Every structure is written in structure tokens, then in C-alpha cells.
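C-alpha cells for chain A. Residues wanted.
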């Protein structure tokens, strides 16, 4: 079925003859052109045009076309009543352009009152997929119409609308809303809902008003109903207010204020409060985030999150990352970022939700100043950079301790022949602590670390000719010698990793394989890669009281330290030999296989191994699976999927399962019914989470272009 119709604002522009009549005004009366001249004003074409002077009537029949300002309106018949000032188009009145079209059996226009009426037809707003049909449209003002026995739907690509909203009587504002009384929602010609009054959007611009409520049921919160109110406060800000009712806990009002000053500068302030019946106390959360940056060199950021108690996220938030977090970190920064100079004033506050030690021993950084000179060429290929930091560490148990850091880095790449490259790197870190002892005596301690590395690497490749493509295999082997030493001094406290960094002598061997397919025409695609690294420590001196990672190590050795700390609570003081591998295979555009692993060859222990698979056909099916094992800490299966298994059924969800503990961490699934028209859908969802154990169910009903009911 093909729809053709014109929006009201286009009808007014084309048919009210405002510009034609502007020169024909006498006093307050409107003088209309006589029938003999109307065809010249309208650029009227028809198979037959007749004029009756006695009746002051012009009639055009057979293939009537009106051209006005480059727009063409078609009808079967046109009648112009001069004395009444009425123009009538009937026998199929149509119009179409890039964004809108209409089709009516008759259109009547009062040229004196500049009012129009449309009978038995529809208007189609293409950008909104919106079709509004009615027995009668009466123009009230520009772009606003009174409608009678109307139907509204977004099924504009269907032979027959799968659903429609019936409006007994109401108003339609193009670019605004449709409002009415006696509202019913029909799905496949059967009543589904009835409302005494409702309004629906007929635009994409933001508009203040109540949003669709959300419904949910869970074991810990009970029946849950969320009523949202959206308020547009300005062109660059808005407010969303939620009234969240939980049958087992009470009512939680929540508000969110958002603003965007420029393309890169925005912010959000959120607050929530509840007198929790289950917790038997008042609880709240305040969260603020902002980022101010742009073409200017100055910047400011803030991320602040504060709650009334450590169990707030666990009890009242839905996000899994908040429910399982051990720390909530708030930070504020502001500074200058130029081409050669960087300056920043910042502070960090850590809220330990489940502290191993007393919360009074949690180290805060309040405040800190950092100034840096960016990497710059000093002489030939010799590069250097430096930064200076001054920090104030604070704990409620010990008070304040000040520290200064000076960090200087230098690097020099040298060519050795045609295929070898020698890369020299040196990093000097000088730290100074200032504090008062228990007797109130001021004291200071200085320490100096020097980390040096030398890397020799090369790059080799070979080409293989295959059918319709060329396979390029590139191999990049390298060897690194690293020496980290404490030159002088000793840090009296351990507030950050550099304070007690391990001293070591280390060799790292590695090679990287990359496979690239080059097709006819020059198109290149990465088809796979494989990286192997082997680290061997000749000696390693570690302060076993430290529970912070080595800051002078590569990623895979730092990850090894993290596992040691998680398992034992401190760094291992044994020299280690570790094997790391990482691989990715892309056998087709749809399939990706990846793997990663760490193996302690000295202890014979697998520290971490993971295997992942992802399939994405960019159309109907997406599957992602990851199995990850981390020493004695965890063995997890992560699965996410989205598949339209039948034309009418889409299944999506995710699963986090602990193979070690044989327990589901989180499992969420959605089953969506999709009709042939695809202009509405019905979804049932179920979710199960732990910490605490909770099962919830949800229903979701959506109409394309208008919104949804449920969550």
C-alpha cells in the first residue's frame, strides 16, 4: 500500500494564497482574485476549465495540477467560489515531498479566514514514521488541527497497520503532540488498552512531561513501580525525576540534572533518598560528574560518588559493577594542557566498602599538584620528558604526610645496520617524604630509583601468493635487558607503588607475528596475530610488606604481581620466570577467536589463561563467549548472545557463571516477540543475581516511534 498526503503546514503554505492576496487588500477587507484570473495565480492545469460569471465560480476537472513555489498538488476536481472566498479540492487530493505527504477525499479552504478542513484521509510524517488518519481535520492555527475519529500509527512500511491508536476526538500539532479523549490501543484490530485521555509525540525534539512508567518484581525489593517525569529546563539542560516505589523497602525519590555547555563539556548531578523499611534507617546517594574541555588549553573534570552507608550499592542499585565493587573512587582535577607543558591540580578520595584493614587507614590524596614537560626532541633522536608532583597523603588514623616526586625519562633509538634497531630507555625517580613523628618532631626521608632498559628488535616479513589475495606474514622479534636499582635512601611509608619498588635484573624475550591479507585492488585485512613473551629474573629484591605492584614492569609482569597480592596479600620475593602469550584469529569477517595466558615456568603454575570466541553477522546473530581461569582465585564463564532464532522471536541476554564455586553470578535473558510488521514488540525478561541472591522479572511492550511500557 502506498501513502500520499501533505502536512498541514505545507497545505497552508500552498493553498492559502497569502502572497497572492497580500497586494489585493483594501482597508481591512480581503479582495480575492476573480475566477477569470485565478488560474494564472495558481499555475493551474487541468483537462477542462470552465468559468461561470453568474455564479462567480471556476471549475477545473480531470487531472488537476496546482504548482506553487515548486510544489505540486494533484486533485480530480477544483472549485473556486469567488463570493464565498472558498476553494474546494476533491476527488482524491494528494501531495508528496521528501519528508511529508497526504491524501484526502476533499479539502476545503476558506481564503478569507485562512482556515482549512480536510475530509476522509491521512497525513504521513516520514521522518517520524507517523501516520494520522481521520474523518475530519479542522485547522485551528498554523500546524495545529482538531481531529475527529482519528487513528495514529507508526506502521508506515506495512501493507496493513499491525497496531493503531484510536482517538475519538482530539488535537494534532505537527512537530508537537497528538492529544485526545476516548483513546484505545488496537493490535490487529483487537482492543488492547483503553485510556480516557492520553497524548503522544509527533516530533523528535525534547519535550517536558511524564515518561512511560517502569515495572519490575524482585525478591529483595518486592513489586517495583518507577514513575519518571522529564523536564526541559533550557536548550542545554534537562531534569529527570523518578518516584521509585518498592513494596518491601518504601518510596525512593530520585533526581538527575544534566547539562551540556559545548560539544566536549557536559555534566550530571544525581541524588536519591529513601527511608528504608528493610534497613530501618534513612539512606541516600549523591553522584556528580563533569568534564569541561574544548579547543582551549584548560580543562576540569570531576567524578564524585558518596553514599550514606557501605551497603547502599548492594541493596539499592541494579548495576552489577556497583553491587560487586570493593571501592568507590571520587576524583577532581583541573589544569592546563599545552603543547609542551602540562599542569594539573587534583585530589582523590577512596571509599572502602569492604576494607581488609580499618577504614581509618585508607590512604587519600588530598590534594596533589602535577607539572610535566612533554616528550621532546633534545638532540638528533634523543628524546626526554620530566614531571614534578607534590602530594598530600591523608589517613584519619595518621593524619597528613607530604611527598614530592621528580620523574625524568629519556630515550634514544639507534639503527644497527639495515634491519636492527637498538632502543635505550632510562627513568630516574626521586621521592621525598615530609612528616612528623609521634613526638611531633619534623622529619624527612629521600629515596632515589633508577630504571634502565635496552631493547634490540627487528622486523621481517614474507609474502605468500594465494587465490585472489596475497598473505603477508610479519615477524617482529626482540630482546630486552632491564635493571632497576634503588640508588639511595629508603621510603618510610608505602603510599604508592614507587615507594618500595622491587630491585631486579631481568631479561625479556619476545616475538610478534602478524598475518595480513592483501586483496586485488589493494584492500588489506588483518587475519590474525600471535605474541609470545618470556621474562626471566636473575635476581629480585622485594619488600614483602608491600601490597602494591611493581611500577617498572611490563603489563604481564604487573598482572603477575596483582595475582600474587590477591592470593598472598603481598608481593612474592622469589625471582620468577614467566611465559606470556596472546593470540587472535580472524578466519572470516564474522568470526573472531582470541586467547591469552600467563604461566610461571619456575613454579609450574598457570597464573591465568583465557579463551574467547565472538561471532557477529552484523544482522541477526551475535554470540560472545569467554572462559577465564586465574590461579586459585576464580574460574569463570562469561556468555552474551543476541539471536533472532525465528522471524518472530529474538532471544538475548548474558551469563556470568563461576565454574570454581559452581554458582551463577548474574544471569539475564530476554525473549522478544516480533510481529511480521516489526512496528511493535512484546518482551519478557528474567534476571538472577547474587550478593545478595535476587531474582526479578520484567515485561516490556514497545511501539515503534512512540515509546515503551515496562523495563
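Reply:
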Amino acid at each position: 500500500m502506498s501513502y500520499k498526503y501533505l502536512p498541514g503546514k505545507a497545505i497552508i503554505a500552498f493553498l492559502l494564497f497569502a502572497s497572492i492576496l497580500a497586494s489585493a487588500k483594501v482597508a481591512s477587507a480581503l479582495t480575492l482574485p476573480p475566477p477569470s484570473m485565478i488560474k494564472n495565480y495558481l499555475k493551474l492545469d487541468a483537462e477542462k476549465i470552465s468559468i461561470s460569471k453568474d455564479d462567480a465560480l471556476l471549475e477545473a476537472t480531470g487531472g488537476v495540477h496546482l504548482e506553487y513555489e515548486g510544489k505540486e498538488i494533484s486533485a480530480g476536481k477544483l472549485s473556486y467560489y469567488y463570493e464565498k472566498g472558498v476553494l474546494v479540492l476533491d476527488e482524491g487530493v494528494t501531495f508528496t515531498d521528501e519528508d511529508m505527504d497526504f491524501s484526502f477525499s476533499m479539502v476545503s479552504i476558506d481564503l478569507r479566514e485562512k482556515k482549512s478542513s480536510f475530509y476522509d484521509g491521512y497525513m504521513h510524517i516520514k521522518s517520524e514514521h507517523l501516520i494520522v488518519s481521520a474523518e475530519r481535520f479542522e485547522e485551528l492555527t498554523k500546524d495545529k488541527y482538531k481531529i475527529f475519529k482519528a487513528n495514529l500509527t507508526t506502521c508506515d512500511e506495512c501493507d496493513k497497520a499491525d497496531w493503531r491508536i484510536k482517538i475519538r476526538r482530539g488535537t494534532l500539532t505537527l512537530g508537537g503532540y497528538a492529544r485526545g479523549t476516548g483513546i484505545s490501543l488496537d493490535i490487529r484490530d483487537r482492543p488492547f488498552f483503553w485510556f480516557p485521555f492520553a497524548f503522544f509525540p509527533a516530533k523528535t525534539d525534547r519535550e517536558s512531561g511524564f515518561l512511560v512508567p517502569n515495572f519490575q518484581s524482585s525478591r529483595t525489593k518486592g513489586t517495583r513501580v518507577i514513575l519518571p517525569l522529564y523536564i526541559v529546563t533550557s536548550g542545554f539542560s534537562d531534569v529527570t525525576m523518578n518516584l521509585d516505589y518498592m513494596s518491601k523497602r518504601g518510596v525512593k525519590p530520585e533526581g538527575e540534572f544534566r547539562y551540556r555547555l559545548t560539544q566536549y563539556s557536559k555534566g550530571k548531578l544525581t541524588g536519591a533518598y529513601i527511608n528504608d523499611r528493610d534497613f530501618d534507617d534513612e539512606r541516600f546517594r549523591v553522584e556528580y560528574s563533569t568534564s569541561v574541555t574544548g579547543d582551549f588549553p584548560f580543562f576540569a573534570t570531576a567524578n564524585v560518588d558518596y553514599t550514606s552507608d557501605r551497603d547502599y550499592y548492594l541493596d539499592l542499585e541494579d548495576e552489577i559493577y556497583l553491587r560487586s565493587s570493593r571501592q568507590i573512587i571520587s576524583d577532581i582535577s583541573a589544569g592546563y594542557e599545552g603543547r609542551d607543558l602540562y599542569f594539573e591540580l587534583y585530589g582523590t578520595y577512596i571509599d572502602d566498602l569492604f576494607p581488609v584493614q580499618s577504614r581509618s587507614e585508607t590512604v587519600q590524596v588530598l590534594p596533589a599538584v602535577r607539572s610535566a614537560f612533554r616528550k621532546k626532541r633534545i638532540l638528533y633522536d634523543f628524546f626526554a620528558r620530566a614531571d614534578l608532583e607534590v602530594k598530600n597523603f591523608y589517613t584519619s588514623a595518621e593524619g597528613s604526610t607530604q611527598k614530592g616526586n621528580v620523574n625524568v625519562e629519556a630515550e634514544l633509538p639507534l639503527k644497527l645496520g639495515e634491519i636492527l634497531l637498538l632502543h635505550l630507555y632510562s627513568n630516574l625517580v626521586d621521592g621525598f617524604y615530609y612528616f612528623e613523628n609521634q613526638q611531633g618532631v619534623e622529619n624527612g626521608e629521600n629515596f632515589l630509583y633508577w630504571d634502565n632498559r635496552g631493547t634490540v628488535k627487528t622486523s621481517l616479513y614474507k609474502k605468500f601468493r594465494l587465490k585472489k589475495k596475497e598473505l603477508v606474514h610479519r615477524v617482529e622479534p626482540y630482546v630486552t635487558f632491564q635493571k632497576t636499582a634503588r640508588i639511595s635512601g629508603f621510603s618510610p611509608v608505602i603510599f604508592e607503588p614507587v615507594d618500595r619498588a622491587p630491585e631486579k635484573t631481568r631479561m625479556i624475550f619476545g616475538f610478534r607475528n602478524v598475518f595480513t591479507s592483501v586483496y586485488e585492488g589493494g584492500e588489506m585485512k588483518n587475519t590474525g596475530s600471535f605474541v609470545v613473551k618470556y621474562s626471566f629474573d636473575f635476581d629480585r629484591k622485594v619488600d614483602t610488606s608491600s601490597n602494591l605492584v611493581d611500577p617498572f614492569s611490563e603489563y604481564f609482569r604487573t598482572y603477575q604481581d596483582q595475582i600474587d597480592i590477591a592470593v598472598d596479600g603481598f608481593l612474592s620475593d622469589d625471582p620468577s620466570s614467566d611465559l606470556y602469550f596472546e593470540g587472535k584469529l580472524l578466519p572470516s569477517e564474522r568470526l573472531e577467536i582470541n586467547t591469552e595466558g600467563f604461566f610461571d615456568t619456575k613454579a609450574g603454575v598457570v597464573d591465568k589463561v583465557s579463551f574467547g570466541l565472538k561471532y557477529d553477522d552484523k544482522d541477526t546473530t551475535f554470540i560472545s563467549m569467554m572462559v577465564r581461569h586465574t590461579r586459585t582465585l576464580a574460574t569463570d564463564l562469561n556468555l552474551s548472545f543476541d539471536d533472532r532464532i525465528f522471524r518472530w522471536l529474538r532471544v538475548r541476554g548474558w551469563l556470568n557463571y563461576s565454574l570454581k564455586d559452581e554458582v551463577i553470578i548474574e544471569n539475564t535473558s530476554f525473549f522478544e516477540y516480533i510481529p511480521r510488521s516489526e512496528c511493535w514488540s512484546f518482551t519478557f525478561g528474567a534476571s538472577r543475581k547474587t550478593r545478595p541472591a535476587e531474582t526479578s522479572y520484567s515485561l516490556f511492550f514497545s511501539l515503534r516511534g512512540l515509546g515503551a511500557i515496562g523495563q
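Confidence is low (pLDDT under 50) at residues 1-31. The helical segments are 8-15, 18-21, 35-42, 312-316, 320-323, 555-568.
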